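go over this chain:
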Amino acid sequence: MNRHIENVLYAPMGWMLHGLALLPLRALYALSTGIYALLYHIVRYRRKTVADNLARCFPHLGSDERSAIERRFYRNLSDYFFETIKLLHVSDEEMRRRIVFENMEVLDTLFDSGKSVVAYFSHCFNWEWAPAITLWSRYKGCKNVRFCQVYRPLKNEWADRFMLRLRSRFGSESLPKRTVLRDLLRMREYHECHRIYERPETEPRRPDPAADAAQPPNCHDHRHRDSRPQAQDRRDIFRS
């Protein structure tokens, strides 16, 4: 389908989602409760598949216990939808109140030494909020570090662009699953190429907690000396 035609056809849906995102999360959770009741009790969306999977995973649990897990799953599924839509209009301050990443100093220390980090998250919470990890790092907005996540592109191009917009809300990049290895190797090549042209410091950098808190370290704009476009020293990390 032509992209311009697709944009016109999906425009009403985009307006509706933007309108929903303007509501406070308290109101969205109320709507989520209604959607949960619709999916679970009326539509009964894939309930047999969910029940069969739970029986295979937890054969030692009784039917009542598995039913309780099933209901919590559908509530979480409904919450996931509205929490994801909220990313269209949510402040950094509210995200910090809603989700917390602990021990981020461990990652920042690795970044200080030029290390790359791979973090794995389970799908036990709203994984679309995971890119908000940048809000807890001193390297948010730093040109020397790239926060990335691996994703599987959607078949619907409009939906794919919409989700990519949400996932980049906090400054991270989405790397397609099929090309992630090539993308990471390219980032590493840029990093190694930059190190060849980088002028070494005359003295080792001494840690300064006050200065580090005020400004991310090593966020300098370094340029290549050859004819290739400007590139910065980037240390790549990605999450799956």
User: Anything to note?
Assistant: The first helix runs from residue 3 to 21. The two ends are 30 Å apart (CA to CA). Residues 29 and 79 are 7 Å apart (CA to CA). Confidence is low (pLDDT under 50) at residues 194-240.
